[in-house]
Design brief:
The complex is a heterodimer of chains A (360) and B (531).
Chain A lengths: L1 E12 L2 E12 L3 E5 L6 H9 L6 E6 L2 E5 L2 E2 L7 E4 L11 H5 L11 H9 L15 H14 L4 E5 L7 H18 L2 E6 L2 H7 L2 E6 L2 E6 L1 H6 L4 H6 L4 E9 L2 E4 L2 E12 L9 E6 L4 E5 L10 E11 L4 E7 L8 E5 L10 E6 L3 E5 L1
Parallel strand pairs in A: 3-9, 3-10, 7-8, 8-9, 14-21
Antiparallel strand pairs in A: 1-2, 1-4, 4-5, 5-6, 10-11, 12-13, 12-15, 13-14, 15-21, 16-20, 17-18, 17-20, 18-19
Helix pairs in contact in A: 3-4, 4-5
Chain B lengths: L24 H28 L1 H8 L2 H34 L5 H7 L8 H11 L5 H13 L1 H13 L2 H9 L4 H30 L2 H5 L5 H9 L5 H26 L24 H30 L6 H35 L2 H15 L3 H15 L8 H25 L3 H9 L4 H30 L2 H6 L7 H10 L3 H28 L2 H6 L1
Classes of the chains: A alpha+beta (360), B mainly alpha (531).
């Protein structure tokens, strides 16, 4: 059952078109991330969903109710959308309990419901504090409790973790995800952080130029992106030229690699009958082999030289420049053996399939 | 209310989205009506000048007296403004950045002269020291009376300026004095200019103090001409020149301010700079501040007390005092309430909506700033005489209307600062939680803005209590306010009768000024961006 449906949504600010025919269906009880670079229209979409702005064309349906469509605009206070803004947006003049109870009818504001919600977000007993006495993560959780208090149809989270410290972000993310699941709420998270989207969401909708370019499970968005540009946006990507060998493999400078089932996609404007493709190889699909004293190249390997190495502890990202003039761009390799490959050492790169490819 | 004890959590400026798509038609209409109301005096002035005949007006403009008045007005304005800039900045720096003993007390005592009407400072000096008159007297009295207009914003800006910038400058090998000149003064530049602008406008509009010191400026001359019915062209001509000078001052300030904007990388630094050690300069600095406070605060208060004791107890007229205080408070409360209310839609439009509306409103406000009280009062008088057969002339509503127009820009500064403390995004959150527009506004924006609204109210009230010029022209027949009663006793040289009124005005005005000081201490942005 879908809880939130958007179809053909258009929005422009003066001559500047922000959303150009956006479609999206969010199933009930799911946790969906809308992922897009800054300027892609994320905030605009969110403001339309919440009802702060009105769409130029298209419809928005929450539950069974059309809230934005031709000749119809339901104001925000009658949409039952739980909105969690960036930085929490707590009311500075109210206590934590006052914030959580803000949307409740007057006689319920001081009562069991508020305590219950505070307990649900792990802040029992902090009702008397003021927002400035809380840490950033606590403020986010109060904002979430405040949104959940009105038993919303959908919770909208607007980049809620961007202002938190890196070490706190992970735990607050997990908490928020857990709270939403326990409450059984449909949640829509807007973010530009791909790690956040990949780690939290059931489904990711990638927003680009005012449209959803891909809407799929996180592993599909990562392993089978819709086009090369998307491959670069979500995670690091090595994009090579290749040639289709037969239906199930592709020839590249790294040798013949197996293709994912049904993984050849046609990019826009492709001419049929052409077998030249762009191949995506993720950094962790590449392996580094130390070049022996003899300098021989093993079969299926490409010789090169390490030009940079970023060491992360659990692994390392090594940049390898292939030997020979014009043999293509540097490879990005994620390896657990970083220290073995110091800068300027000679290595060989080997790939592991299966891969995806797009017809030219 | 908890707003005093607990500081609101810092709200990032990014939370206020600048773009709004739907035109707030209601707000624009209301604001346009208010803007039209503000433009009324200038329109009347032009109509009146037209009626009197432009040739008559221009012959009045180009007569020798105008040259004398121009020279008197300009030299006084320049000298006092520079003196206030130096005095205000120096004292603000001493209080905010050095280990001057008793800094907390000085911070209050240096602001209080703002509460003392200029003509009371003038009275204090002039009645005690006969040599205080003419140009030198005017420079001395006005500097002492208005330097807090520079002190307040500069102190606020120094208090919140990013100390990191000074540290960076020192680390780049720039010496202490050079850092002060290149960084500290640079940070305070906007505040200094804003203060100087206010000083210059006050000087152009001042009547009482100059009349007492027998120093002739455009304003005193307009006032003198006002009572002669044949002198309409003269009054119009002088008013037009005065408005033109004020506009020049406003334009000059805008030009000097230039592109300099206070940019801050990262959030507000809560860090406090360790105060600079004055060392051996401590004693002279202390003596200087003490002398200033004695001159600006001590002399007027001492003079009032002195004259009361000279006159003996019967001099204190109980009934007339109560009556005058009641009327002053009544007019003050009415004007302050109306102004705060009118400033609310305009401030909402300016802070939360399109920049086009904002520019238009700012221009209109500037027009009012350039209209000294005497000119506004005169324009209203001529209008009632001409078109209403003097109906409404010298009645309470017209006087209050005059105050409302005069002090609208002031109220707007405070209300804008107040609204800026309540980001629009919080209203949106409230609406998403099921609150209707009006409920969201009153439960969030109004609550957050309340301290600033009170400050704006106090600011206008304070100005009404100490206003003399327009009040003398428009005060209802048979009614005296504190200022006019003081003035009539003073004019008759009945210093003993005048002195109690001076003391009461100081007392009544001091309280709002302390409230104001506290508010602007907490939100210095308002003074920097307010005008």
């Amino acid at each position: 059952m879908r809880q939130l449906a958007v179809s053909g949504l258009h929005k422009a600010f003066g001559p500047h078109a922000v959303l150009t025919g956006l479609d999206l269906d969010v199933p009930a009880g799911s946790f969906t991330a809308i992922l897009g670079p800054s300027g892609s229209g994320k905030t605009t979409l969110l403001r339309l969903l919440a009802g702060f702005d009105q769409a130029d064309a298209g419809t928005i349906t929450i539950g069974q109710r059309v809230v934005d469509g031709p000749g119809c605009h339901v104001p925000p206070e009658r949409r039952r959308i739980g909105y969690v803004p960036q930085e929490g947006g707590l009311f500075p003049h109210l206590t934590v309990a006052g914030n959580v109870g803000f949307g409740l009818p007057a006689r319920q504001r001081r009562g069991a419901r508020t305590d219950e919600l505070l307990a649900a977000v792990g802040l029992a007993g902090l009702g008397g504090r003021y927002p400035h006495q809380l840490s950033g993560g606590q403020q986010q959780r109060v904002a979430l409790a405040r949104a959940l208090a009105i038993e919303p149809e959908v919770v909208l989270l607007d980049e809620p973790f961007a202002s938190l410290d890196a070490h706190m972000r992970a735990s607050v993310r997990a908490d928020v995800q857990q709270i939403c699941r326990t409450a059984g709420t449909t949640a829509v998270l807007v973010t530009h952080d791909q790690d956040e989207a990949l780690s939290m969401a059931d489904r990711i909708a990638v927003l680009r130029d005012g449209k959803i370019v891909q809407y799929a499970a996180p592993q599909d968005v990562y392993m089978r992106p819709a086009d090369p540009a998307l491959a670069r946006f979500v995670g690091d990507a090595n994009l090579l030229d290749g040639k289709l060998a037969d239906g199930a493999a592709v020839d590249t400078i790294l040798g013949r690699l197996p293709l994912e089932p049904a993984a050849v996609r046609s990019a826009a404007g492709s001419a049929s009958g052409n077998d030249l493709v762009t191949v995506l190889i993720r950094p962790e699909q590449l392996e580094l082999v130390a070049t022996g004293l003899t300098g021989d190249t093993a079969s299926g390997c490409l010789p090169g030289q390490v030009v940079a190495c970023e060491y992360y502890g659990h692994d390392a990202v090594v940049r390898v420049r292939p030997d020979g003039e014009g043999s293509g761009p540097d490879f990005i390799v994620r390896t657990s053996g970083g220290p073995q490959f110091p800068v300027s050492s000679h290595v060989q790169v080997r790939a592991h399939g299966p891969v995806v490819a797009w017809l030219h | 209310m908890n707003t005093v004890k607990t500081r609101p959590a810092p709200v990032p400026l990014t939370a206020v989205p600048a773009r709004r798509v739907r035109r707030p038609a209601g707000l624009i209409c209301v604001s346009a009506v208010i803007a039209a109301l503000l433009a009324v005096p200038l329109a009347f002035l032009l109509i009146e000048a037209h009626r009197a005949g432009w040739s008559a007006v221009s012959s009045q403009i180009f007569r020798p007296l105008s040259g004398t008045l121009l020279w008197n007005t300009v030299r006084l304005t320049v000298v006092v403004t520079v003196a206030c800039a130096i005095l205000g900045t120096a004292t603000a720096w001493l209080v905010e950045r050095t280990d001057l003993p008793g800094r907390r007390i000085w911070a209050v005592l240096l602001v209080v002269p703002l509460a003392i009407p200029d003509f009371v400072v003038s009275f204090g000096w002039n009645s005690l020291f006969l040599w205080v008159h003419g140009f030198q007297g005017a420079v001395l009295v006005m500097t002492l009376a208005v330097y807090p207009l520079v002190y307040l914003p500069v102190a606020a800006s120094l208090r919140t300026a990013d100390p990191g910038q000074e540290e960076v400058a020192r680390s780049l090998g720039v010496g202490r004095l050079a850092t002060f000149v290149r960084i500290t003064l640079g940070q305070a530049k906007g505040a200094i200019l804003g203060g100087c602008l206010l000083v210059a406008l006050v000087l152009l509009a001042e009547y009482g103090a100059f009349e007492m010191l027998s120093y002739q400026t455009f304003t005193t001359e307009i006032f003198t001409n006002f009572n002669q019915p044949s002198a309409v062209p003269t009054a119009c001509a002088l008013s037009l020149i005065l408005v033109a000078i004020s506009l020049l001052v406003l334009a000059g300030e805008g030009w000097l301010r230039g592109r300099g904007r206070v940019a801050r990388s990262g959030p507000m630094a809560p860090r406090v700079m360790p105060p600079l050690r004055l060392g051996r300069s401590r004693i002279p600095a202390l003596a200087g501040v003490l002398a200033l406070v004695l001159a600006a605060l001590g002399v007027p208060i001492y003079a009032s007390v002195y004259w009361i004791f000279q006159g003996g107890v019967p001099a204190i007229g109980g009934v007339s005092m109560l009556d005058a205080a009641w009327h002053t408070a009544l007019y003050g409360v009415c004007a302050a309430a109306v102004d705060t209310l009118l400033a609310l839609p305009v401030a909402l439009l300016a802070i939360r909506h399109t920049s086009a509306a904002r520019h238009f409103l700012e221009r209109t406000t500037y027009l009012v700033l350039a209209m000294p009280g005497v000119v506004i009062a005169l324009a209203l008088t001529y209008f009632t005489e001409q078109y209403l057969h003097s109906f409404g002339y010298q009645t309470a509503p017209l006087l209050v209307l005059c105050y409302v127009i005069m002090f609208f820009p002031l109220a707007l500064v405070g209300v804008k600062a107040a609204i800026a403390r309540a980001p629009a995004s919080l209203d949106e959150v409230a609406r998403s939680l099921g609150q209707r527009k009006l409920a969201a506004f009153s439960r969030v924006t109004l609550r957050l803005a309340a301290p600033g609204l009170i400050a704006a109210f106090c600011l206008v009230f304070l100005e009404v209590v100490t206003e003399l010029t327009a009040t003398l022209i428009l005060v209802p027949t048979g009614v005296q306010t504190l200022a006019t009663q003081f003035w009539s006793y003073q004019t008759n040289l009945s210093y003993a009768q005048a002195a109690p009124f001076a003391l009461v005005m100081i007392g009544v005005a001091a309280l709002p000024s302390i409230v104001l000081g506290r508010f602007f201490n907490r939100s210095p942005e308002s003074l920097r961006t307010g005008l």
